[in-house]
Design goal:
The chain is α/β, with parallel strands linked by helices. It is built from twelve helices and eight strands.
């Protein structure tokens, strides 16, 4: 697979799939290898997806200094990736926890980002986080599901920070619009794709300065899409709208009946929505 060298000497790998205008893709997790993004619901038929394995994940090397797993420290990796690709300005797609990384990148390098698609993304970088109340609100939408009772009990332990690995597995259906075979296979791959040490450091103390990031982005002309899933708890649609309101050229969209991985729930809707935004249609 292709790779490049980060400023600190760490070798970073990426994957290329599809055709068309390039789209730089940042995986969430946090710190999950990019394989789980797949072809983003067929978006690869419309765009050339450049999927980065963040340091310490997938095919990328482990850094000499574990402190560089912190989100703000990885902004330099994204800029090195853009430079390696030889692109003057890039369109960026970021999923989940990578929303923070993408926002920090756009704040530090506003002239390098043309459009930013934030998919069911976090925005701690802007001072917005998702609460236990949001999780419970989303959970209440799924009471008719056959898996609800067990998943609800496990989910309560997850939201309380007292979950076992088994609880995370049992609560997994809440992250998907449909708990079918594809969702089960996708969820099962999570453990082997995630760097737990890196995930623990990703949002550690000092990673975010929301006031500074909001100020930097307020002066930016970067177009931003906040795509939320109707059934997702992070972010709930109103939280995505709140994030969009903090940015001068942002719009929020809600994908019906979608969870945290909307490209699995309705691939056609997802790909068309993202492509329409990127092209300004």
């Amino acid at each position: 697979m292709p790779s490049f060298t980060a400023p600190d000497g760490t070798e970073l790998a990426y994957h290329v799939t599809g055709e068309g205008e390039p789209l730089l893709c940042l995986p969430g997790g946090p710190m999950r290898a990019s394989a789980y993004l797949g072809d983003l619901g067929g978006l690869s038929k419309r765009r050339r997806l450049l999927l980065l394995d963040l340091r310490g994940t997938g095919g990328s090397g482990v850094p000499a200094d574990p402190a560089t797993y912190r989100c703000d420290r990885q902004v330099a990796d994204v800029e090195a990736f853009r430079d390696h690709l030889g692109l003057e300005r890039v369109d960026v797609l970021a999923h989940s926890a990578a929303g923070d990384l993408a926002l920090l990148y756009a704040a530090r390098h506003p002239g390098r980002v043309r459009a930013l698609a934030l998919i069911t993304a976090r925005a701690r970088a802007l001072g917005v986080d998702f609460t236990t109340a949001h999780r419970r609100e989303a959970s209440a939408l799924r009471t008719a599901e056959p898996w609800f009772a067990g998943a609800h009990e496990a989910g309560e332990r997850v939201w309380a920070g007292a979950a076992t690995d088994a609880d995370w597995d049992t609560a997994a259906p809440f992250f998907y619009g449909r708990w079918d075979a594809a969702a089960r296979a996708h969820a099962a791959a999570d453990v082997e794709q995630t760097n737990d040490e890196a995930a623990d450091r990703y949002a550690s103390a000092g990673a975010f300065d929301p006031a500074a990031t909001r100020a930097a982005l307020a002066a930016s002309d970067v177009r931003v899409l906040l795509l939320a899933g109707e059934l997702d708890s992070g972010p709930r649609p109103r939280a995505a709208a709140r994030i969009a309101a903090l940015l001068p050229r942002a719009e929020a969209a809600v994908q019906p009946a979608a969870g945290h991985f909307p490209w699995l729930d309705d691939p056609g809707y997802f790909a068309a929505t993202v492509e329409a935004f990127l092209t300004g249609a």
